[in-house]
Design a protein that fits this description.
CATH superfamily of the largest domain: Medium-chain alcohol dehydrogenases, catalytic domain
Structural class: alpha/beta
Distance between the termini: 40 Å
Number of strands: 17
Strand content: 15-25%
Shape: globular
Low-confidence stretches: 353-369
Largest sheet: 7 strands, mixed
CATH architecture of the largest domain: Alpha-Beta Complex
Number of domains: 2
Number of helices: 11
Mean pLDDT: 93
CATH class of the largest domain: Alpha Beta
Length: 369
C-alpha cells in the first residue's frame, strides 16, 4: 500500500507553502525508498512556486530537488544500493533511457522527456505527478539515486545535487584545469560552489560582481581575484582574459560585455535561470573564435563523479540549516539576498520534531562549510 508522509507544498502560485500529507508509492522491483535527512532550497523551487514558470504543474506541489537521505527499503531487483546507505537524489528521477542523449549519459537532455523529481507526470503512477524533497521520504528508481561518499557532511552535501553539478559539469566540459582562467559571475548559491569547484580543478579564479560588497566573501572562498563590473570598467580592464566565464546569476547579463572578456576560443556559459531575453550580437563571437553556451545540471554518472570529486577535494556548500516551518521565511530571505549561501531543510522537522538530534541549539548549524 502507498505510504503517507508529511511534507510542505503549495496549492497555487504566489501562495505560501503549507504543511501537507502526500502519498508515496510502493517500492517496485527496481526502486529504493529513502528517508530524507536534508533537502536544499534552490531558486528554481521558488520559480515554480512564485509563478515564473507558469501555473503549477500539479496542486498541491511539493518542491525540492537537492535530497540527501538514508535508504530504508530496496526493491527485489536492486543492486546499486542497500538499506542503510547514505544516498542522494537530484533534479530528475527518470528518463526514457533509450534516446541518443540518455545513451550518452546525458539524461538531463532526454529527447523523450526526463522526469523531474517534482512536477512531472510520473511514469510509475499514471495520472499522478512527482513530488519533491520537502518531505519525509521519497521513492525513486535506483538508477537515479547516487551514493553520497564518506567524508561529506550530509547537510552541506545536499546542495551539490543541483547547484554543485550545475557548475561542475560545464567547468569540466569547457576545460577548467591548471593553467586555465575562470571567471564566476555572481556569488550566490551557484556562484560560491563555482568558485570552490574551479579552484579544486586547479584554475585561476576571478569573481565578477556588480558591487564590492562580496569581496571578502570571495576571498574566503578561495577566489584569486575580484572585479567590480557595476561601472563597466572591468569589461575593458579584463578584455581577452578568461578561458571560461560562468554566469550563475538568475538575471539578464550583457552578453556582449562578458563575451569580450574571453580569450582565444573561450566560452561564456549560462547556468543561472532567467525568463527574460538577452540580446546576442554575433560580432563578439566571431572575434577570438568565442562561444556562448548554456548548460543544465548533469547526467547521473556526472553527478556521481562530481560527488566523488567533491569528497576528494573537500568541496561542499556553505549552508544555513533551517526547520521546515521556516521555508517561507527562507524564500523571503533568498529574494533579499540574505543567505550565505544556501538554505538546507532539516528533514526531521517536517513533522515538527526537534531539528537537531544532537540537542545543539539551532544557531550551531548556521554557516556550515
Amino acid at each position: 500500500m502507498p505510504t503517507t508522509v508529511r511534507a510542505f507544498g503549495a496549492h497555487d502560485v504566489r501562495q505560501p507553502l503549507v504543511p501537507l500529507t502526500i502519498e508515496r508509492r510502493d517500492v517496485g522491483p527496481h526502486d529504493v525508498r529513502l528517508d530524507i535527512l536534508y533537502c536544499g532550497i534552490c531558486h528554481s523551487d521558488m520559480n515554480y512556486v512564485g509563478g515564473a514558470f507558469g501555473p503549477l504543474p500539479a496542486s498541491p506541489l511539493v518542491p525540492g530537488h537537492e535530497i540527501v537521505g538514508r535508504v530504508t527499503e530496496t526493491g527485489s531487483a536492486v543492486t546499486r544500493h542497500r538499506v542503510g546507505d547514505l544516498v542522494g537524489i537530484g533534479c530528475m528521477v527518470n528518463s526514457c533511457r533509450r534516446c541518443e542523449n540518455c545513451r550518452a549519459g546525458q539524461e538531463q537532455y532526454c529527447l523523450g522527456g526526463r522526469t523531474l523529481v517534482f512536477g512531472s507526470p510520473d511514469p510509475a503512477e499514471p495520472g499522478a505527478h512527482t513530488q519533491g524533497g520537502y518531505s519525509e521520504a521519497v521513492v525513486a528508481p535506483e538508477d537515479f539515486v547516487v551514493r553520497v561518499p564518506d567524508g561529506l557532511d550530509p547537510a552541506a552535501a545536499a546542495p551539490l545535487l543541483c547547484a554543485g553539478i550545475t557548475v561542475y559539469a560545464p567547468l569540466r566540459r569547457y576545460g577548467a584545469a591548471p593553467g586555465s582562467r575562470v571567471a564566476i559571475v555572481g556569488l550566490g548559491g551557484l556562484g560560491h560552489l563555482g568558485v570552490k569547484m574551479a579552484r579544486a580543478m586547479g584554475a585561476e579564479v576571478t569573481v565578477l560582481s556588480r558591487s564590492d560588497r562580496k569581496r571578502d566573501d570571495a576571498e574566503a572562498l578561495g577566489a584569486d581575484h575580484y572585479a567590480v563590473t557595476g561601472d563597466g570598467s572591468a569589461f575593458a580592464d579584463l578584455a581577452n582574459t578568461f578561458d571560461i566565464v560562468l554566469s550563475t546569476v538568475s538575471a539578464p547579463i550583457s552578453l556582449k560585455d562578458h563575451l569580450g572578456m574571453l580569450r582565444l576560443h573561450g566560452t561564456l556559459v549560462s547556468v543561472g535561470v532567467t525568463t527574460q531575453p538577452m540580446p546576442l550580437d554575433v560580432f563578439p563571437l566571431l572575434q577570438n573564435g568565442r562561444a556562448y553556451a548554456g548548460s543544465l545540471f548533469g547526467g547521473i554518472a556526472e553527478t556521481q563523479e562530481m560527488l566523488d570529486f567533491a569528497a576528494a577535494h573537500g568541496v561542499s556548500a556553505d549552508i544555513e540549516l533551517i526547520a521546515a516551518q521556516d521555508i517561507n521565511t527562507a524564500y523571503e530571505r533568498i529574494l533579499a539576498s540574505d543567505v550565505r549561501h544556501r538554505f538546507v531543510i532539516d528533514g526531521a522537522t517536517f513533522g515538527g520534531q526537534s531539528p537537531d538530534p544532537s540537542g545543539l541549539p539551532r544557531a550551531a548549524a548556521r554557516g556550515r562549510r
